[in-house]
Amino acid sequence: MKLKQRVVLLAILLVIFIFTKVFLIDNLDTSAANREDQRAFHRMMAGLRVELVPKLDHTLQSPWEIAAQWVVPREVYPEETPELGAILHAMATKKIIKADVGYKGTQLKALLILEGGQKVVFKPKRILGFRRAPLVVGRFVNLRTEIKPVATEQLLSTFLTVGNNTCFYGKCYYCRETEPACADGDTMEGSVTLWLPDVWPLQKHRHPWGRTYREGKLARWEYDESYCDAVKKTSPYDSGPRLLDIIDTAVFDYLIGNADRHHYESFQDDEGASMLILLDNAKSFGNPSLDERSILAPLYQCCIIRVSTWNRLNSLKNGVLKSALKSAMAHDPISPVLSDPHLDAVDQRLLSILATVKQCTDQFGMDTVLVEDRMPLSHL
Asked: Which string of DSSP letters, residue by residue, matches 288-315?
């Protein structure tokens, strides 16, 4: 199921990072037995329920100005975000003043300009949170009254009617007039992704664990178990946080079932210091019964993971991740965002990740596998 993926992706990232300061692990004991841990847990759960509020009471800044100021090299938005509800509300409701075909890519999308000049990307029916993904919210859009009157000629030329439904097919690698995206009548359900500020240009990188997409031809990592050793000798993975970011991303992608991370983006001219930005998550939440373990190859071949990531993952087991996701997405305009089979699948995949890390610690020891975030990687 591809429905509403991008909203879920933001929610998962949000859940994982809110757990950062809750439930620290002592000798892999993940129990929340004492009262203070229980109180911290309930505070965390309450913080996940982000209500979409219509205005900002404490500032004269626009929601777009606040969101732009949040972006720094290692996160797209901060841990404490009292304005988040107002920004998501603006994304879901602000008047659309211009609509154009989306930027290049393989999937259908439209580039919208909202009132106040903010760029957003609208994707029909798609979905997570490591604070490394741009803000996403669900939105219902009336194609006839909100899009067509402000659409460019290029976008307008791709509109058509199928039965009683308004449809469009846009411009992209796989976009075809014979396979348009259709509204229910005139109303289309989709996701709106906040455009990153222009002062933060992006740089595209080939993922070291990318697939070849050629029948009968394997990538080196698919047959060479020592492949990670070669990656560690290559910039920017030989030092700095990038390799740990790759492993965090593998965990994230495995949870959502995304086996299509062939490229990734970072901020330009960062010399490996900026975060790996999670932009392209379109191939996630397909078959909830299918677990593609090869997504975890960076984890089980390198056998290292951030201590903070390991702590968060342990805190989310025993059904906590499923409950937290439900809370995080409860107030989204297109709720419910994920079906129960997909929520169950995410919980089950979490256990597989924990088991993979345990295999690594059994083989190499905790001191080698669990890496402090601040630890330089040039020694590995």
From this structure: TT---GGGGHHHHHH--EEHHHHHHHHH
